[in-house]
Structure formats: structure tokens, C-alpha cells
Amino acid sequence: MRTTITLAGISKSFLGVPVLRGVDLELRGGEVHALMGENGAGKSTLLKVLAGVHRPDAGSIEIDGVEHSFAGPADAQRAGIAIIHQEFTLLPHRSVAENVYLGREPVRRLRVDRRRMVEETARLLDWLGEDGVDPTAPVSALPVAQRQVVEIVKALSTDARVLAMDEPTAALADHEVELLYDLVRRLRQRGIAILYVSHRMREVFDLSDRITVLKDGAFVTCAPTAELTSADLVRHMVGRELGTLYPERADPAGLGAVRLALRGAGNARVREVDLEVRAGEIVGVAGLQGSGRSALARAVFGVEPFTSGTLELDGVATRITSPRGAVRQGVAFVTEDRKGEGLALRQSVRDNALLVRRSALPPRRGRAAVDLAALLESVNVVARDEHQEVRFLSGGNQQKVVLAKWLAVDPAVLVADEPTRGIDVGAKKAVHHLLRELADRGVAVLMISSELPELIGMSDRILVMHDGRLAGELPAGASETAVMALATGHGVGEVA
Amino acid sequence: MSFRPRLAEGTAPVLVVLVVLLVGLAIAGPAYSSPEGYLALLKRAAPLMILAIGQYFVIVSGGFDLSVGALVTAGVVIAARLIDGEDSATAWVILLVLAFGLLVGLVNGLVTTVLLVPSFIVTLGMLLVLDGAVFLWTGGAPRGALSPGFREFGRGAVDVPLLGEVPWSVLILLAILAAAVLFMRGGTGRALVAVGDNEQAVRLSGGRVNRLRLLAFVLSGLLAAVAAILLGGFAGVSAQVGAGLEFRAITAVVLGGVLLGGGRGSVVAATAGALSLEALFTLLNLLGVAGALESAVQGVIIIGAVAYASLGVGLRHRFTRTTTKQPATASG
Amino acid sequence: MTVQEKPLPVRTVPARTRSRGFAFTPTVVVYLALAVLLVVGSVLVALRGGVLLDQAGLLNIFTRATALGLVAIGQTIVILAGSLDLSVAYLVGLTSLVAAETMAGQAGMIVPGVLLALAVAAVVGLVNGLVITVLRANAFIATLGVALVLRGYLEHNYTGPAGEVPRTFQHLGYDRVGPVPVAALLMLGIAAMCWWLLTRSRPGYHLYAVGGDLEVARLSGVRTRRTIVTAHVLCSVAAGLAGIYLASRLGSGAPYVGTDAGFDLESIAAVVLGGTLLAGGRGGVVGTIGGVFILATLDTVFDDLAVDPFFKDVVRGVVLVTAVALYARRTVRRQS
């Protein structure tokens, strides 16, 4: 018999402020059920209710007609519910097997049965076709993509009947995304109910059987995927029509001088990179995870500086050996890890927006009055006031604060690594327009994105990286297949 | 930039505590019916408050300074030995004590930032080294004596127009506090808090993280030296003069709502925490709580205050998190 | 596992895995350092016409290591769990008094005395743990507060040694097997038990998880509060054992026996010296014991060399910082 999980009328408030208002959700064994909604719509809270992390104020959770009440994550696990959280839930210093069985270590004669843990983990890894992962290796030794595999193994090892995945592809390279799809489909075949939370339209349409949309903590609709178009979805999520158009590209004739140029630049992670970005231009960098696209961005910004070749800013050869040096020479960097590297989350909107100015500029320039209100308005940050701590903002607004802190120093070059990661459709659009506005004001923008439609839609030219090198360059509006061909190492010849 | 007065988050509870204690003092002790009584309290509290300001810089930037107690002792013992009652030596010895505090802070900061040793360990090591070295040098017990000129800062008072007699230590405290508030409002101060919150974000914003943390330790060392000068004057020379002050200063800072681990808290609140602690001791004395039980009561109150602060903050957080969804355009 | 319908291919996994060869883990480093210290110390002492590792010298090292070792074992457990205990020094004094006063010189009261002392210790640990988990006070402040409460109690009720342990109980403090005191062997036995508990048992796994990342542990279904409270109870019981041992050696309870020895910071120093991460989640009892013996050997060498006692503190401070600096270097290199 296939499992059915019914969440009915789930409500949850924090100190009287409702976050979920009577949400219904029905999951069936053997289906992939997508859960969509803007940031703040209540998806994460709903997931946490399902995972036993939060107790709902009202409503019921039934599994095969039996009502359950979870006192904690352990109860939910026992009922067959496994969650893959958005942030990694792994202990870096412990081994893969120890992580997989964390909280449920098999015990034999009073002691943890390490052998069984390792063997079971190895079997699951093999089953996923990931036999390259050593169950006894510490997680800190694994690349990011393999950590995601460990997360999945951890979820599977609980005898899960329901698997909820919160943005599972956020950290994956494209070919790994394919593997994940494959895996999700296999799990579906075996009768597992999969709740799939994602911001990426394409994933949702590729994978899901049904879609439930939440907005402002309330249930909006639930329909078979086949009956919905992406425009419908956006309308349900945002409550209004949102054009899917990207901002207009730059006029090739109107481009300015070359602001950033690399000639034969390389370090331990990237080799022999030649590129030029002109004032007013957005150059996209595509590539699989580990291809060196982020390493390139970090090298330009001086996090891991180039050790060979030359870097020119506005035609002058220079050396950038630290982020501070980069900032002082007019280079800005939007990191892909907003919370870890981009913002001081407990500090106010104001302090974050002024962070670069205060930290990197010489005191006299740094202290000069800046029109903060105008700055925040130009990126359209929605916050209670400038003294609100940024951790209470939505991902999209946080990203706007990141952009604001760079706008405050008028950069000549902006390197943006995954500038729209983990933010909702509306905010994405706003960030796209901001980047284009910057370019129009004469900034040279180097943009990295693993979302191909976005990259193609935004870029005036596309550079594709493979194995630490530039594999080729494609014009604006190139096809996804052309990009992928280069990214996977099929060479320029076949696509050009 | 507008300078409208704004209470940093976490400041309110300690101010309430402080007011309650001060009112308690007024009720319990006749000495506290006049400003002089409070001035005396402030004078007594000044060294701890100055230590708390120094400790605040370190804690808010994500560190610990366990060496300040030993540094106070060292400062007093060194001063006594070098001055040896000679008034003429006062000026250069004061400079030397300040320089010594600065040096100790510099070493703490350099070992923390360059050798990447957790500051808890570095300053614990420094505590051991200072305790040992000072007594090694003086041969086991403090020798010499402070000059009257030196002791003036801790004991004496000065005639201030309108206010009358104000103790030197209170004036010094107010000057330091004012400077600290200005510093924390400025870019460097804000960046210091940001370092305690997310070091990497500051680094990738072009900030000099190591220099900022170093600065915090240097300021802490320097202020500990100032506290040593005041305490030496106030309490005289003893080997125990600084004992336990590091814990007291940390307690004061935490009582002021500053987050251990860094990234949140105001310097005014930390200072108010120190004053509250001193007011508490005074009140306990007035109420006739036996000296021995005093620390027990202190322990209970500290746990209670911190628990209240963290539970209270926890509730407020959840509240703010959910209220942010009512959008309102940011205004300057 | 429901997702597996047919038998899966079994990958052969070596039973004792992790054949990553010999590595300079902090534990290895600390024992190498101990060996070097013993050699250098022996040479220095020999130059002055003495012998470091004779019967008396060994006895001295082991005796010094016993009480600190017990406290440090407990401290290791709480530090691994991401916590800290600053109340152990006063607790050692308190439990020595409870034990000695309950025994009051009668052999028949030994068992009740020991049990009562351990019960008092457990209660103090429980309070520490509950203040940290339920009242959500920072461990540093919580245990400092508890330390102050204990101090107040001791200062209020005692001015000096009190109680008396029966003669038979003093065997615990003074009997030895060859040059090794029985109590030291018991301490090592307890260390071994804790090693097993930490590395082989489920609660041990959970302890590392809680110290490594509280939120990850919680989301994985580990009962984090229970784990932290248990760690504090174990830590306090270990400190209680140290108090009982010291009562047996002194013949009576002494309120400040723990604080005079600086057991609070000293035990943290030993733990960190032994390579355990102050932030928690990494390290272990084996390293701690190495750290304890380094500190004990240093003291003994200095005694033999008749070095000024204050010089010891200086050296200790330098050793502590240097050791941690070395560990930190290593971690940074490995991460990059």
C-alpha cells in the first residue's frame, strides 16, 4: 500500500504573529510534490513542522490515517519522515558514516557498531552510484557536491517514507543535478513520497507531479504540474503578473573602454585566463561546479590572488593581492555565500551598507557623508528601518543590502558570484535590473550563475569555463546546449 | 548623519536593573540620599567600569581577555616598586605602567591574530605569565610604596565649577566613556562589532580584521593599566588587588547584554553593567548580608540576569522575525 | 531500509578502516612532547646531581597528576560538548568537606561519605547543566555564577579544614604499587572508561555531535539538552572524585584545596594542551591525560631544580600558548 501523508489546517504563530494559516498539504507515496512560494511564504516553517522541529498551533498530521504528533525531530524520523535541509547538516570533523547515522547509531553489546555503520553507508553510496565516497573519510575532506550526496544518504538511511528536500540543488553542479533528478525519480518509483522545495522553475517542471503554492503563510493552490504553466505559477506565488523578460542588453556600439582585462592569468585553481570586460557590459561566466568559475571571481578580487599573468584595470597593469587591495582599486565582489561571507547578520542595514566604505576606504573618503537613504532606496531594500538587523530580512532584501554596500563605493568593476542564489522570483528580477543599471552607468560586470536561463538572459557575452580554463566564448543569447557543450568539455569546434 | 539618541538592543534591561539597585540604595542607606553618596559609589566603581569598557572592546569583537586582573596587579606592583615613595618618579612611572598595559595588549592581540590561538587561551597564558613574572621580579611579595602624587588619581578629588568636588577617577572614567562612545559610533567601532559578528564578511569588504582585533586587545590592556593606576591609589598596594577582576569585568559586560562571542552589545550598557555590579555589592553590604554570602548572592543574580537577558532576547527575536513581513520602505 | 528491494552489492570495507598512515595528530604531538620533556628534564636534573625518574620522582609526578587528571577528564567531557565548567575548583573543595565531615573519622562511614560527596557533585553538575540548557545562560557565565554560589557557601561556613577521614580511607591517598600510587591507577582507569564512553558509546557520539554543531545535532534527532546536562553531571562527578581523593590525602576536608591549586583554569589548560578544541567537538581524553602529565612533569622538574615557584607559572603560560599555536598552525595548513 502506498503511504499517504495529510497535513490539514496547519497553523503556526510566533508570539501571535501567524506564519502559517491553516495550510493543507497532501503527499502520496510515489509522487514528487513541489512546494513553491516566495521567501517568507512559509515553506520552511511548514517543512519544519513536518520534520518535528516546530509544533503546530493547530491542525493535524496524519500518516495513513493515523494521527501523529511530533515532540521533536526524532519522533518525525521514527514516523518515516526525513528532511534534507537547505543548509548542510553535517559535522565536518566526523566521518561520513558517523554523519549518516548521527542520532541513530546502531548499537551492539553496548557499543556503537561502527562496522555495520560503515558497511551500510557504503552500500547506500554504491546504490547511488557514488562509490567514490569513502564512508570513513571525514566530511571536511569531501567536495561540496559529495556532501550533498552524504545528506541524501543520511536521509535515506532512516527508512524514510517521506523525503522532504529544501532547495536540494542549490549547492550542486549541473551534472550532479541530473544525478539528483535520476535519484529522485528512482525514489519515487519505490513508493516514497517526495516533497520538493525549489525556486527553480525548470526543476519543478522537470521533476514534479503536483505543485502546491503558498503565499503569505496560506494555501493558494494545488494542481497537477501538467495543468500549470510557469506564468501561472509566478502569478500564484507573487499574486500578480511578472514579466519573464530580462532587462535589455547593452548596445554593442555603446560599450566603453576595457575596464578589466586578464592576460594569461592563473593560480592554483585557474590557468591561462584571458578576458576583457568593457564599461557597460555584463559578461557571464558559465561552468560546472568545480570548473574554476568561482575561483576566477575570487582571484580577481584577491581572495586567492593570481600568481601568474597580468591583470589590468582601466588599461593599467596592477596586482591585486587582497580583498582590501581590490576594493581600493575599484573592484567589488558579491559572494555566492551571502550569510557566510557577505553580511554581518546581527548588524543593522545601515552598518552593513556602510561596511565597505568604513572598512576599506581611507578615513577621509570613508567618513565623508553618504546619502544612505538614497542608497537604500536605489536598491529598493524593504526593511523596518535602517537600524533593523539584516538577519531579519528576506534573502532578496539581504542581497540588496550586499549590493548597496558595494554601490556605496562606486566600483569600476563588479564581480558577482551567483547574485540571485536562494532568493525569490520578485527579488531576482530586481537584482537583474540593478546589475543592468550598474552596467549602464559604466561599471564592468562579471557575472557567474549556475542557472543557465538567467546567465543567457543577462549576459552580453558568455565565457564558459572547464577544468580551470576558459573553454570558449559565446555571443549573447547562445543556446543552453551550446553552453553545456563547452562546459562539459566537448570543445569549441563542435558548437561554434 | 543624525545623532538622535537610540538605545542599542540589550541596553534597556541593564538600565532597569541599575535604576532598581540605585533606588534600593537610596532606601537602604541614608548616605545615598545625597549626590555625594552616589559620587562615592561612582568613584569606587570607576576602575571596574574602565575595565569593563576595555573588556567590551575585546568581547564585542569576538574574544576574551582573561589577563586584565593579573595586569592590574602587575601594574600596581610595578608602580610601587619603581616609585618606592619618591614623588618625583610619579610621572614617568605612570607612563611606564600605561606603556606596559599597551605592550601586554599588543602581545595578546598579536598572538591571537598572527598565531591563531584562541584568545581565551592566549590571555589565560598571559595571566599565568604575568602572575608569575611580577612576583618573580619582586621576590614574592609587593615591595616599595606608591607616592602621594600617584595615589591622588585614585583617592583625590578636584574642584569642578558648578559640581563642586568631583573625584579624579570619576572624571577619568567619564572622559574614557565619552571617548569610547564616540569611537563605537564611528566607522572603526562599527567595523569592530562587525568583526565579532562575521569576520569573513569584513575581510571581503576590504576591512583589516587582524588590525581591528589587535586594536581591541591593545585598548583593553591600556584601560587595564588605567584601572591599575586608579585602584592602586584607591586601595593601596597588595598582591591581591587585581585578583578575580577579569571575571568581574566579563560578568559586568555580559550583564550589560553584550553577547559573548561578539557581534552585539553597546559600550554604555557594558559600563552600566559594571556600575550595577558595584551597586549590588554596596547594597548587599548595606543590607548586612554577611561578606561571605555576598558572592553567593552575586552568583545567583548573575545567572538570573543572564538567563533573563537570553530568554528575553530569544522571544524578541522570534517576534521581530515574524513582524518583518509587513513591508515598509526603508527610510533614512 | 525500504528503498532496497534486492540485495545490494556489498563493498568490502576493511574492518579497521582509516588506514591513513601515521599522522601528527595533537594526541601524538602531546605524547611526543611529554617524552621530550622527560628526557630534557632528566638531563637537567642529572646535571644538578639528581635523578628525575627515580622512585620519588615518579611518585611525585603521578601524585600531582591524579587530582588534576580527574578534574581535567571531567573538563574534557564538557569542553567536547561545547561547554565549559569554571565551578570545578570550588566543587573539589566542597566535596572534600562533604566526604570528610560525613566520615568523621569512622571507618563505617566511608561508603556513605563517598556516596554523599558524589551525590552533591552530581547535583551541582545538574544545576550547571540545567542553567545552561533551560535558562540558556552562556556556559562561561552560568558556571561562573555557580562557582560564586559555592564560594559563598564555603566562605560562610568554613574558615579552614574540617572533618576527618578514617585511617583506613587514607590508604586510597597513599598506597602504591611500586612507584605508582593506587589512586593514579584508578584515575587512569577512569580515563580509560571515559575514553570508551566517548569513542565507542552512543552518548559519546552524541557528545561530539553536540559540541561540533548544536543545530546539526538537534536536527539529526540527538537530544541535545540531555547530552549537555549529562556532560556536566559527569564533569562534576569527576571533580567530586578529585575532592574525595584530596580528602583522603589531607586527612580532612579543605575548602580551598581546589582553588589554591587553580583547578578551574588549570584543568582547561590541560585539556587544551591535550589538543582538544576549546570550541568543542574535537579532541579526547587521551590527549588530556598527556597534557596533565606534561604539567605534572614540569612541576616536578622545577621542584628538583629548586626553581622559583613563580617561574613555573611563567613557563606554564608560555607552554600553553605555544602548544595551542602549534595545533592552530596545523589546522590552518590542512584546511588550505
TrEMBL record, chain A:
<dbReference type="GO" id="GO:0005886">
    <property type="term" value="C:plasma membrane"/>
</dbReference>
<dbReference type="InterPro" id="IPR003439">
    <property type="entry name" value="ABC_transporter-like_ATP-bd"/>
</dbReference>
<dbReference type="GO" id="GO:0016887">
    <property type="term" value="F:ATP hydrolysis activity"/>
</dbReference>
<feature type="domain" description="ABC transporter">
    <location>
        <begin position="5"/>
        <end position="241"/>
    </location>
</feature>
<keyword id="KW-1278">Translocase</keyword>
<keyword id="KW-0472">Membrane</keyword>
<keyword id="KW-0067">ATP-binding</keyword>
<dbReference type="GO" id="GO:0005524">
    <property type="term" value="F:ATP binding"/>
</dbReference>
<dbReference type="InterPro" id="IPR003593">
    <property type="entry name" value="AAA+_ATPase"/>
</dbReference>
<dbReference type="InterPro" id="IPR050107">
    <property type="entry name" value="ABC_carbohydrate_import_ATPase"/>
</dbReference>
<dbReference type="InterPro" id="IPR017871">
    <property type="entry name" value="ABC_transporter-like_CS"/>
</dbReference>
<dbReference type="InterPro" id="IPR027417">
    <property type="entry name" value="P-loop_NTPase"/>
</dbReference>
<keyword id="KW-0813">Transport</keyword>
<feature type="domain" description="ABC transporter">
    <location>
        <begin position="255"/>
        <end position="492"/>
    </location>
</feature>
<protein>
    <submittedName>
        <fullName>Sugar ABC transporter ATP-binding protein</fullName>
    </submittedName>
</protein>
<dbReference type="Pfam" id="PF00005">
    <property type="entry name" value="ABC_tran"/>
</dbReference>
<keyword id="KW-0547">Nucleotide-binding</keyword>
<keyword id="KW-0762">Sugar transport</keyword>
<keyword id="KW-0677">Repeat</keyword>
<keyword id="KW-1003">Cell membrane</keyword>
UniProtKB/TrEMBL annotation, chain B:
<keyword id="KW-0812">Transmembrane</keyword>
<feature type="transmembrane region" description="Helical">
    <location>
        <begin position="12"/>
        <end position="32"/>
    </location>
</feature>
<dbReference type="InterPro" id="IPR001851">
    <property type="entry name" value="ABC_transp_permease"/>
</dbReference>
<keyword id="KW-1003">Cell membrane</keyword>
<protein>
    <recommendedName>
        <fullName>Autoinducer 2 import system permease protein LsrD</fullName>
    </recommendedName>
</protein>
<feature type="transmembrane region" description="Helical">
    <location>
        <begin position="267"/>
        <end position="290"/>
    </location>
</feature>
<feature type="transmembrane region" description="Helical">
    <location>
        <begin position="89"/>
        <end position="107"/>
    </location>
</feature>
<feature type="transmembrane region" description="Helical">
    <location>
        <begin position="296"/>
        <end position="315"/>
    </location>
</feature>
<keyword id="KW-0997">Cell inner membrane</keyword>
<keyword id="KW-1133">Transmembrane helix</keyword>
<feature type="transmembrane region" description="Helical">
    <location>
        <begin position="114"/>
        <end position="137"/>
    </location>
</feature>
<feature type="transmembrane region" description="Helical">
    <location>
        <begin position="241"/>
        <end position="260"/>
    </location>
</feature>
<keyword id="KW-0813">Transport</keyword>
<keyword id="KW-0472">Membrane</keyword>
<dbReference type="GO" id="GO:0005886">
    <property type="term" value="C:plasma membrane"/>
</dbReference>
<dbReference type="Pfam" id="PF02653">
    <property type="entry name" value="BPD_transp_2"/>
</dbReference>
<feature type="transmembrane region" description="Helical">
    <location>
        <begin position="166"/>
        <end position="184"/>
    </location>
</feature>
<feature type="transmembrane region" description="Helical">
    <location>
        <begin position="214"/>
        <end position="235"/>
    </location>
</feature>
<dbReference type="GO" id="GO:0022857">
    <property type="term" value="F:transmembrane transporter activity"/>
</dbReference>
